[in-house]
Write a structure and sequence with these properties.
The complex is a heterodimer of chains A (214) and B (497). With 214 residues, chain A is mainly α. Chain A has six helices and no strands. In chain A, helix 3 packs antiparallel against helix 6 and helix 5 packs antiparallel against helix 6. The radius of gyration of chain A is 19 Å and the shape is elongated. Chain A starts with a helix and ends with a helix. In chain B, helix 3 runs antiparallel to helix 6, helix 4 crosses helix 5 and helix 7 packs across helix 8. In chain B, 69% of the residues lie in helices and 4% in strands. Chain B is globular. The relative contact order of chain B is 0.14. Chain B folds into three domains: 338 residues, no CATH class; 60 residues; 85 residues, no CATH class. Classes of the chains: A mainly alpha (214), B mainly alpha (497). The interface between A and B is medium-sized, with 23 and 25 residues.
């Protein structure tokens, strides 16, 4: 049994590390976005490789957690739910990385008049991810608080949608080539998708929370 | 020969191990919080401990219901119960071992023409209802206590899991101990009056009494049942009957363990008694009923929406059919044992209404006119006396039972040497043994003759009209001692002449 407690503590710390990485990825995304908009491409590329590193570590941690949960039959009743949460949260990091990678490949030219809305959209998406991390942490440690955070995630997801919509309207109202409009819209949607991914996790999380409550 | 006959009791023990362990560890194994091997090991150890060290309380109650006085009878009664259980478990319904054995004992009573003690039946049957309601209430109470803890707990999900896992082991061990203590009476209870075991001195003050050896054998058969068949039942109980989460499984298990313990512990009984609190009868209750009660309690506490009433109905039906089936099988098999295999399933008992017994009956406050139909006659079955006395409608069933007790011929010779040799002298104080030694060699024709002599002495304190629970308990202890003396001092009828 002491061995079990040791494993338990180890898996707990791995879950915490995993969530730290998600949170760090979101913050790094925000900084990378600012670097890109202000033309600091070198810094932007450095952030991208940092996020790639995060993604690798998150994947390794997730697989390790999965292995421990199944090998040691920990939380047999909830492990399916926990794995679903971790896998879906992992997709948020994938989304963040994909988004930045696309920037790095296509290097879209963003008119400076869009900067503010662009930053606002990415801030709302990042806030959704940060609240998601709080929600997931609460799922493990403080069940009563989960719904508050889930509520916040939904709020920021709506916020990202609304600002994103304004951004896209503005893009298509500009006097630029249709192909460019189309390219910019693609990037705007990419940013919104990050908060959508956070919302998807919350949809599951709210059900798992009900399941766990007595 | 005894060991051959005991086989049916061991078969019953096997079926109890297979059936009832599922009630304790079913949910824990099915939710994969405990591996079967670990659950089986805990169950095996603690059921054995409970049976050997605390099994005597509930056995006494079964003994009062019907004292099966011949080995062949005990064999048949246990076999009938085991068959009834196996049949019903085969259909896929968890069954109550306690109810089944009671049905089988009543079958023996009816077959051998003994009057069934209705009060014992009422005590036992009401304790079943009480156990069901009590476990439901305790489970609901525990649920309400646990809910805020689980919902507002700040401990990590994984740590909660660790805590629940540990608790399931500890509470499961407690439950297994209580099950052993409470239910061993079902397995070998009918063999208690006919057991040939004598005490074994292990080391220093440690003695394994004859009774404990019998319980140990019973417990080993339960262990065999756990290892050979209980896995299947555990999965069924855990999966089909009611799906519990680990935490609700823990609550249900704790409620079950508490209830089984309440109905089994002589220590607790004495404690309640000394505190002047109402006591709980020491009766073998059904672990199936108790766990179902606990689950219903939790279901109701949750709002009553998740209870599967159709399955509950099916289980309740088995609570009626199992004893009836056991009764029928028992009665039929006793008939076959006696008439086809020519085995003795009951001791031949004689009842006589001569000058001595009639005088005693009148002394005890009965009207001699009521005895007109039996006066001067002798009988071989309680039922015949009951029929004769009941013709006048002047006596109640209880009064007739008391008259029958007085008229029973039960030759006794005070023999303290035999008492010491069998190790049973330990149940008596030095002063009591001194009184018995004074009577050494005296011969009595009826139990009450010895009883009257002994209860007139202060060493055998008896309260004819007990006023408090403590006095009632003293009377119960004395009854137990007297029954022991009757068994130890019994001689053949021929020796009397």
């Amino acid at each position: 049994m002491p061995l079990l407690l040791k494993t338990t503590r180890f898996v707990e710390s791995q879950i915490d590390s995993f969530l730290d990485i998600v949170s760090d990825s979101a913050t790094t995304f925000q900084l990378a976005m600012e670097d890109y908009l202000h033309g600091r491409i070198e810094e932007f590329e450095a952030r991208l490789s940092q996020i790639r590193e995060f993604e690798h570590r998150a994947d390794d941690l997730r697989v390790s957690i999965e292995r421990f949960l199944y090998e040691r039959t920990l939380i047999p009743e909830n492990r399916g739910d926990v794995l679903a949460i971790l896998e879906n949260t992992d997709e948020v990091i994938d989304n963040i990385k994909d988004s930045l990678l696309q920037f790095s490949i296509e290097m879209p030219e963003i008119p400076s008049s869009l900067n503010e809305l662009w930053i606002q959209t990415s801030k709302a998406s990042v806030a959704a991810v940060e609240q998601l991390v709080f929600a997931v942490r609460s799922f493990f440690r403080d069940l009563a608080a989960v719904n508050n955070y889930i509520h916040k995630v939904y709020f920021f997801e709506r916020e990202a949608d609304q600002i994103g919509e304004r951004l896209r309207r503005k893009i298509f109202g500009m006097d630029i080539e249709l192909s460019r409009k189309s390219q910019l819209r693609f990037f705007a949607i990419h940013i919104e998708k990050i908060s959508d991914a956070a919302q998807n996790v919350c949809d599951r999380l709210s059900i798992y929370t009900i399941k766990r409550q007595l | 020969m005894f060991f051959f006959y005991l086989l049916s009791g061991l078969f019953l023990g096997w079926s109890l191990g297979a059936n009832d362990t599922g009630n304790i560890f079913g949910a824990a194994v099915e939710t994969r919080m405990l591996r079967f091997r670990k659950a089986a090991l805990i169950a095996a150890i603690f059921i054995t401990l409970g049976a050997v060290f605390e099994g005597s309380g509930p056995s006494g109650t079964l003994g009062r219901l019907g004292s099966v006085d011949a080995l062949g009878g005990a064999f048949t009664v246990a076999l009938a119960a085991a068959i009834a259980i196996t049949v019903i478990v085969r259909i896929g319904i968890p069954v109550s071992t306690s109810q089944t054995i009671v049905g089988a004992i009543i079958g023996w009573n009816v077959f051998s023409g003994r009057l069934t003690d209705y009060r014992s039946i009422i005590t036992i049957a009401s304790s079943w209802v009480m156990a069901f309601v009590l476990s439901g209430s305790i489970a609901a109470g525990l649920f309400f206590l646990a809910r805020p803890w689980v919902n507002r707990s700040k401990s990590h999900l994984l740590e909660q899991d660790y805590f629940i896992r540990y608790s399931l082991v500890i509470v499961g061990a407690f439950g297994a101990y209580s099950l052993g203590a409470n239910n061993i009476a079902n397995v070998v209870g009918v063999f208690v009056p006919v057991s040939p075991f004598t005490d074994i001195h292990i080391w220093g003050p440690f003695v394994l009494t004859g009774l404990q050896q019998l319980y140990l054998l019973g417990a080993l058969s339960i262990v065999l049942g756990i290892y050979t068949y209980s896995y299947k039942v555990m999965r069924t109980v855990g999966k089909d009957l009611f799906h519990l989460s680990p935490i609700t499984a823990l609550i249900a298990l704790l409620a079950e363990a508490i209830v089984l313990f309440l109905f089994a512990s002589r220590g607790l009984y004495n404690l309640l008694l000394s505190l002047g609190l109402p006591t709980i009868p020491l009766v073998p209750v059904s672990s199936t009923q108790v766990i179902v009660g606990a689950v219903v309690g939790i279901g109701l506490a949750k709002g009553g929406k998740n209870i599967r009433y159709n399955i509950l109905g099916r289980i309740s039906l088995a609570w009626v059919t199992a004893p009836v089936l056991a009764f029928l099988i028992s009665f039929t098999m006793l008939f076959i044992m006696q008439n086809v295999f020519e085995q003795k399933v009951q001791e031949e008992t004689h009842y006589i209404f001569d000058r001595v017994t009639v005088t005693k009956i009148v002394e005890d406050g009965f009207d001699s006119a009521a005895l007109s139909t039996v006066n001067g006659r002798s009988f071989t079955a309680e039922r015949d006396i009951y029929r004769e006395l009941n013709q006048l409608h002047a006596l109640s069933r209880d009064e007739i039972s008391r008259i029958i007790e007085i008229s029973e011929i039960y030759p006794l010779s005070v023999d303290t040497v035999a008492l010491t040799n069998s190790g049973m002298h330990r149940r008596f104080s030095a002063e009591q043994l001194a009184v018995l030694r004074e009577l050494e060699g005296n011969v009595y024709r009826h139990k009450w003759q010895l009883r009257v002599l002994l209860t007139s002495r202060e060493e055998f304190l008896y309260f004819p009209e007990p006023e408090s629970e403590i006095q009632k308990n003293q009377n119960r202890i004395l009854e137990g001692q007297l029954n022991q003396l009757y068994r130890s001092f019994k001689i053949e009828k021929e020796d009397l002449e």
